[in-house]
Structure formats: structure tokens, C-alpha cells
Amino acid sequence: MLNDEASAEGDTRRGAAAPISPISLIGWAPELQKAKVYEQILLDVILGALPPGAKLDEQDLAKRYGCGLAGVRDALGRLALEGLVVRLPRSSTTVAPLDLADVSQAYEARQLIEPHCAALAAQNATPEDIAAMEAAFADGDAAARASDPRALIDMDQKFHAALARATRNLTLAKILIPLQHKAARFWVYSMDEDTVEDRLAEVARHRVVLDCIKRGDADCARGAMLEILGVFGDTVRRSASEETGGPRAMA
User: Fold this and answer.
1) CA dihedral 23, 26, 27, 28 (to 10 degrees)
2) CA distance 48 to 172
3) pTM
4) Which residues are CB-contacts of 22 (< 8 A; sequence separation ≥ 6)?
5) What DSSP assignment string belongs to 208-238?
6) How confident is the model over 217-232, as pLDDT tens digits?
7) Are 107 and 235 in contact (CB under 8 A)?
8) What is the DSSP letter of 247?
9) What CATH architecture does domain 100-239 belong to?
10) Domain regions of the chain by residue span
């Protein structure tokens, strides 16, 4: 009988995907304080509670989130790598502008990558991955009816993070998640024009992706993700066609 190590080697030779630990996947580990600080600052940047152009003082942020300076510095470093904050040597750190050109480029990249990630998730998702995606939008309808952007964005982040983990492809996951964060900032901006029906439909589209993943249907998952991205792309193009009042006004 093969031992566990030999069995794992056999799985690798057969092409089985290696697991991705939460810690290796861009430092995601909910039990770590640094990860919690990053998620809190990230959510406030996405929601505009920390608005574009705002100066970010490390001491003030530590007080705001009840954490140490090391956690704040780690979070700002990660956000700078994602392009969500701008850090200048020996100068201040500011929240990056919300620029339509940047959003459009991120959307184009995401449109190429995320449908493939959804297909990989359908092939590789574990029961734990599926449970995480199910939990993400468990209260989605209530949040949509309440027009609660913080809850909706938090759900969206958790869903796409769980999907990224389920790909079992660390390289793709590291590319995808920062793109999704940029999209979320724009989604918050566009929510003002959404009806309750629009938000309920968005939640439903995410559940369709999950249903495809649960069935292990890669083609279905790819197509369902393209449907989500197609709606988002329409919103980006509509904003691009407006002469005033688009995301550039927030820069």
C-alpha cells in the first residue's frame, strides 16, 4: 500500500492540483490580526469611507482600527502593491484616485482571467471552498433589499476570494484578487444608480456561478462568470460615454 507521501506524488503526476493554503494566498488568514487590519482598510477604501486622495496617517489608522503600527504598515504595503494607495518615500500615503481608464483596463484583464478561474474552480473546488462561497451570499437578498453597500461589498469580496482559492492556481489567484478589488470600488460608485431589482439580480448571478461549480460543470461556470462580467462591462462603458460625472470626478 502506498503511504500518504507516495500517494500525493502520484496525484501530482496525474495532474491533481496542489492545495493553496490561506496564508500562502496573498496572506489571507482570517485568524491573523494583520489580515484583519488589511481587510478593514481595504473595505473602507472600496466603500469610499477613506476617499480618493485622502492622506493616510499610520498613527490615526492604528487608533481607528484598534491595532498596532506593524499591522497598518503591512496593510498599506499590500494595498500599494494593488494600486489602491499611493506611497511616496519620506512623504505621505494617500488613497489612489478612482480613474476610469484604470477601471477599464482592470476590467479587460479580469474578463480574460476570471471566467477561466471559474472553470478551474468547478474542476478543483473542495467541499470547504463551496461552503465558503455559499456562506458569502447567504444573506445577499436581505442586503440587496436594504441597499446595504458595506454588506454587499463584503459578500462580494468573500465570494471572489473563495473562488480564487478554489482554482488551486496561486498565480492566477494573485492576479485576480487585486483586479476584483478595483472593480469593487467602481461598483460602489455605480450602486447609486442601481435599483433593488438590479442588486437582487447581481446576487442571483453569483449564485448561478456557484451552482455550476457545485455541479463540477466548467463550461457552465465559465459562461456564468462571463454573464457577471458582461453586466459590469456595460456599466463601465456607460460611464465612459458620459461627458461628466463619471469616476474621474472622484480622482
Assistant:
1) -80
2) 27
3) 0.78
4) 28, 29, 30, 165
5) HHHHHHHTT-HHHHHHHHHHHHHHHHHHHHH
6) 999 999 999 999 987 6
7) no
8) G
9) Up-down Bundle (1.20)
10) 33-95, 100-239
Q: What is the pLDDT of residues 114-172, one digit of tens each?
A: 999 999 999 999 999 999 999 999 999 999 999 899 999 999 999 999 999 999 999 99
Residue type, position 73, single letter:
R
- What is the rounded distance in angstroms from the CA atom of residue 173 to the CA atom of residue 169? 6
Q: Is 87 helix (H, G, I), strand (E, B) or coil?
A: strand
Rg, Å, the chain Cα set? 19
C-alpha distances out from residue 204 to 33, 96, 138, 166, 219, Å: 32, 31, 11, 20, 18
Show the cell assigned to 135. Answer: 456562506
Q: Do domains 33-95 and 100-239 have the same CATH topology?
A: no
The H or E element that residue 140 is part of is helix 140-145
Architecture of domain 33-95: Orthogonal Bundle (1.10)
- CB 212, CB 224: distance < 8 Å: yes
DSSP state of 191: G
DSSP state of 18: P
Residues 6+ away with beta carbon under 8 Å from 190: 235, 239
Is 99 in contact with 92 (CB distance < 8 Å)? no
